Structure formats: C-alpha cells, structure tokens
Amino acid sequence: MLVRLLYASHAAKETPAGSITAIMQQSHSNNPRQGITGVLCHSERLYLQVIEGGRDQVNALYAKILRDPRHTDAILLHYEEICERRYSGWTMGQVNLNKLNPGTLLRYSALPEFNPHALSGKSSLALIDELMAAASVLGRA
Fold it and tell me: Start and end of every BLUF domain (predicted)?
C-alpha cells in the first residue's frame, strides 16, 4: 500500500551550515533502496517535506525525522493512502523557499511569508504541485 505524508518543521538553532546538502545526499543515497520519493522545501529556518512510498517505509522514515536533531516542532499536515505517486520522478526533489515568489505564496496563504505551520495540508500540497509545474523543483533522479 502506498501512502503520502506531508509534514512541516523548524530547523534547529544548532543546525550546522550545509545541513540541506547533507539531508539531500542522505536522501539520494537511502531513498531508492526504500522506494521513497518526494520533495523537500526549505528556507533558512523551515522545512516542508512530502514523502511517498510504502506505508511501513514512509512511517519509519517519518519516525527517524522526528528523532533528527536538525528538526524541531514537527507537525503532520497530511497523510493519505494513494493509488499512484505524484512525485515519482524525485528520490528527493529540492525547493529553496527563500526564492519563492510572494505572489505564488499568496495564492495559498493569508500572508506573503512562508509559514507551513499556518497552511493546511491541501494548500501545502497545491503549493508544491505549482512549484513542480513551474520547474522550481531541483534534483530529479
């Protein structure tokens, strides 16, 4: 059974420089073996990530993320069983949200500031889908 999980978290204050690079390298190394696909959206202080795959694999990865000291205040925004993957082309795509157009964000948010803790899961997924359509996602594998 395939599932899609979306969560948001804050970057820990002690997060070293280069953490995004390390997260992406780990994802590209580990995710293919686990059948995990998805997209990581990030700014200097926030993460928004969608992961897809088998229920056991996605749940295990999310449990690992919850224990990861680079994340704080993780919140589950959306979890669903799916018939097909939406992000099958990415072992883990990447979006730098510091480059997000405020007009794009205003379609899904009350304010032009990225705050995934204030967005619904459906709005967050729609934002990620728009970023994919606009070719803002890097790291197709």
Answer: 2-93
Rounded Cα distance, 43 and 10, in Å: 9
Q: Report the share of the chain in percent with pLDDT over 70.
A: 92
Using DSSP's 3-state secondary structure scheme, residue 39 falls into strand
Residues 6+ apart with CB under 8 A from 75: 7, 8, 9, 117
Question: What's the predicted TM-score (pTM) here?
Answer: 0.88
Alpha helices in the chain (DSSP H): 19-34, 55-67, 102-106, 121-133
Report how far residue 132's alpha carbon sits from residue 130's, in angstroms, rounded to the nearest whole number.
5
Cα angle value 131/81/114 (rounded, 5°): 30
C-alpha 50/C-alpha 10 separation (Å) is: 15
Domains of the chain in start order, with CATH, are 2-133 (3.30.70.100)
Q: CB under 8 Å to 35, separation ≥6 — which residues?
A: 53, 54, 57
